[in-house]
Specification:
Blueprint (H helix, E strand, L loop, with lengths): L8 E6 L16 E8 L2 H11 L9 H11 L5 H11 E6 L16 E7 L2 H4 L3 H12 L2 E13 L3 E4 L2 E4 L5 H10 L2 E10 L11 E9 L3
Parallel strand pairs: 1-2, 1-4, 2-3, 4-5
Antiparallel strand pairs: 5-9, 6-7, 8-9
Helix pairs in contact: 2-3, 5-6
Bound molecules: S-adenosylmethionine (SAM).
Length: 215
């Protein structure tokens, strides 16, 4: 979980948001504006559906209540949903394999980048992973924070009956790629997978906060 705390600012860009909002629930307490992004039209449409409170949108209420409980007040869930809907200003097309990942849109550098479970799904090998990390970093101010949630040693994950492949990553390779992209890792947490999980073969989840070194 990400407790609202040290990482704050005006703008946060979430890279590879998918159709999900769970990763933005605590972030929306600490940033004035959030920009979400994803490669696929379907994921962006699904996200827009929830943001616009449209019929048929996924019901995130149990997750929102849980996050509110972790933050100290489960009853604030409706307020948080409203807040998040107001704070997400745009949902943009993105491709982490391009040097301008949001092309044709260009944005001022943000105070924070968030990316959960994206680069390992998007990149086919370690070289493209390192390149993608550099590509996304161009959207971050020097001194800004990168917050990532990464699955370690995963080769596949299931969404319903569909199987998606994933880049096998070890913690050391991630940390080395971050150093090479000029980050100082400030905080790392490794959560082991439950042995009984069947939707994926990942070994652990790595959550980290890194700071982009000044140029
Ligand atoms: C496992 S999902 C993670 C989604 C969400 N961030 C989460 O935490 O559940 C991986 C996401 O990466 C996106 N993706 C795949 N290739 C991409 C690329 N080249 N550029 C940006 N996003 C990409 C997919 O569309 C998908 O939404």
């Amino acid at each position: 979980r990400s407790k609202p705390g040290g990482v704050k600012g005006d703008t946060l860009i979430d890279i590879g948001s998918g159709p999900t909002i769970y990763q933005l629930l605590s972030a929306c307490e600490n940033f004035k504006e959030i920009i979400a992004s994803d490669y696929t039209d379907r994921n962006r449409q699904e996200l827009e559906k929830w943001l616009n409170n449209e019929p048929g949108a996924f019901d995130w209420t149990p997750v929102v209540k849980y996050v509110c409980e972790l933050e100290g007040d489960r009853e604030k869930w409706a307020e948080k949903e409203d807040k998040l809907r107001k704070k997400v200003k745009q949902v943009l097309k993105c491709n982490v394999s391009k040097s301008n990942i949001l092309a044709p849109v260009s944005l001022p550098q943000a105070d924070c980048l968030l990316s959960t479970l994206c680069l390992e799904a998007a990149c086919k090998d370690l070289n493209s992973y390192r390149a993608a990390l550099k590509n996304i970093s161009s959207l971050l101010k020097p001194g800004g924070h990168l917050v990532m949630v990464i699955v370690l040693k995963e080769t596949y994950y299931m969404v319903g009956q569909r199987r998606f492949s994933c880049l096998y990553l070890e913690q050391e390779s991630v940390e080395e790629a971050l150093r090479e992209a000029r980050y100082d890792v400030q905080c790392v947490e490794v959560t082991p997978n439950r042995p009984e999980s069947t939707f994926s073969d990942f070994e652990a989840v790595l959550s980290l906060v890194a700071c982009k070194r000044p140029a």
